[in-house]
Fold this protein.
Amino acid sequence: MQTAGENAVGTRRRVKVYQLNDDRQWDDRGTGHVTSQNGPDDVVSLLVRSEVDNNILLDSEIRQDTSYSKQQETLIVWSEDQNDLALSFQERQGCEEIWERICQVQGRDPDQTDPLQSSDEEPEDDLELPLPEVRNIEQIRDSIQNHCRMQRREKLSSAIKAQNYIPKLLEVFHSVEDLDDANSLRVLYEIFKSIWLLNQA
């Protein structure tokens, strides 16, 4: 029988695993609990076991050349072997623990990995993004992607921060997730990926 402490760890490490399929739709691979596992030759992997039957939902090596992105409090996304993956955490603390472990393995500072933190300090308040609501997500995606293509990344990055945009998008994400709306999840993934890529070009 699990102790109260074990139950608490299980709750905060509870995640949903998503993978983007060939039709650019998000597949829900199941709900389980994530841990970091040490293997041979100092390999560290993220392992998710199903809460239903204990089968492995995800076994992903944390690689130096993999770009991970933590989207605010409860979402970690990355690409590996041409697959786009995401972990959606039930609790913020569990996301922080796994994020810190990823950064530790990669030799990164977990507090200095948000690509939006490095934009200039000059205020840019003339760019108004669409209201972060479910009905506007396609418009949001198009607006963000258009500004990236127009080489206006710094202005876009500043606007996202000034308008406290990402926490609002996370609220939209959880609403869409509760509805199991695969198409909207796909659009939201494109939005988050575009935001993360702002300072990668």
